[in-house]
Amino acid sequence: MSFNEEDKKILSQYEDVEGITTKKLNFGLWFVSSRSFFRTLFIGILLCISIISWFYVLYNLGFYYSRGMREDEIMVREMIMNNLNHDAILARMPVDLVYAPVDIIDNGGDQYDFLIQIRNPNERHAAEITYCFIDGNDREISCAPNFILPGQKKKIISLGQKLDNPLAVKFIIKNTRFKLIDLHIYPDWEGFSEERLKIEVSDIDLVSEDKLDILKFKAKNDTGFNYWEVVFNIIFYSRDSIVGLDQYLISNFMSGESRDLSKNYTEPFGRVSDIEIIPEINILRDDIYIDYREGKKFLK
Predict the structure, then answer these.
(1) Does domain 198-300 fall into CATH 2.80.20?
(2) Spatial separation of the C-alpha atoms in residues 10 and 30, rounded to whole Å
(3) Which tens digit of pLDDT belongs to each residue from 43-58?
(4) Contact, 288 vs 229, CB < 8 A?
(5) Domain 95-181 CATH class label
(6) Residue 124: which residues within 8 A CB-CB, separation 6 or more?
């Protein structure tokens, strides 16, 4: 059966009582007749996705085997080295200074001397500190700077402090600045320090004359260096107890020079069984040395 244009027009305007038009019928017919095409298209899309995925996987596997494994090995080695370097850095970091409780010596009349024994456990770091002796209310009694050479044990003295309750005195370090002993500058630190600390103290004696205690000793500069000043810390013992403290300063102490020194004390120490005299020099400071050049003094 053939339809003319007018029939086709009438047929195209046909509408089923249930609302299904000829356009919908034609689309349904086309869709049913094209199912194989859509199935093929869907399979083709899945195949393309699969090919692209496999290409991506194979490319990354090839890249990893060609470069990634080597880069991973380098990264692991760097991590190991960084960890070793970190451990080495930690091993080189200075640790805190160690000190004992304060020794307090009663001089009478509310006057006291203090002594603290302090140790630097760092073999490659010197320490410059600011310290204080404080009372039970954390008030500062006396504060001063000081130094501790690498591995050094030393005694710090504070003289003639007046206070009401000496039993609560404590020692604190307010600031610490560590200085690394640079092996390029000090390739032989032990030799460097030993050469500059050879100040011999001998012939120590304490005699009583005319109600005075007279301390006598000899100091010799066995170093090859001239010093502007040298401080001697003096500690008087009665058996194991400290019964007195003092300091003695000498100036212009020349290399090879020997001096007979003495000091009078109007207040006797009582029975003294031993006397310790310790020279104190910060050999890391340049301004402690006297250098004679053409008859003039210069700081080293």
Answers:
(1) no
(2) 21
(3) 888 888 888 888 777 7
(4) yes
(5) mainly beta
(6) 92, 150, 180, 181, 189
